[in-house]
Write a structure and sequence with these properties.
8-stranded mixed beta sheet, binds zinc ion, Rossmann fold, 270 residues, 9 helices, alpha/beta
Length: 270
Amino acid sequence: MSLSAKQLQRYNRHLTIDSIGKEGQIAFGDANILIAGLGGLGCPAASYLCGAGIGSLTLCDSDVVETSNLPRQTLYREEDYGQSKVVIGKRVLNLMNTDTEITIFNKELDEKLLENFYTVILDCTDNIHARLKLNAHCYEKKIPLVSASATAWDGHLIGFDFRHHERLCLSCFTNPAHHQFSNSCTQKGVVNSVVGMMGTLQATTVLRLLLGHFDQHGEMIRYDGKTGRFITLTKKVDPRCLICSEPTSQYKEAPVNNINEENQKNGDLL
Ligand SMILES: [Zn+2]
């Protein structure tokens, strides 16, 4: 792929950055990204990745737009109430940038969706079962995974580059014995700009992965919106992890019944 005269103009602000340039912009155009979940995380992530000229975005979500989504799910408007999120999302993103091909799956995450190849997968879901399914798939197929969550004022982000690392995965974080950083809230709501920022950080992490600038495998970034502070948390591999510490035959058997109930409900990363 090369860049047309129109694209040279359109992506000028990227091209002038030494660490991106034409080569990086072409890498963006060659990428095929899956965004699982088109809610408060997925909307800003999809907007920025589409704007950045990602070649192909696949959007997966079975939900319809509700009024309570509108403060943070920036692809939707009041008139979209009751309509499919991915259908509306595709329409809006197509208007934003015709360089990006949009594919939609108006259903829950399933095996058929994961049969396709993706350069990077974004976990923008809100339940732990989907998160662990994506984690197991990305680990097995050596696909980078970028997960995020947000509750009230707190946001979390973790990226895994399974192309280069075989140890440490999202499942290592979900054993109750390692919940030293656990966020125990369930229905505390979420600040719209906090979840928006986490989705934006997911998009930035994707761009870094595509440029080969990602070296934070398994590092968790925590943002406290109430104090405005970021902290980085590191963690060791859980030797009992059934994904990255056991034979591959057990990937699909990873138990999720020992995850604390509150995290199951709100899909918190920790
Ligand atoms: Zn693991």
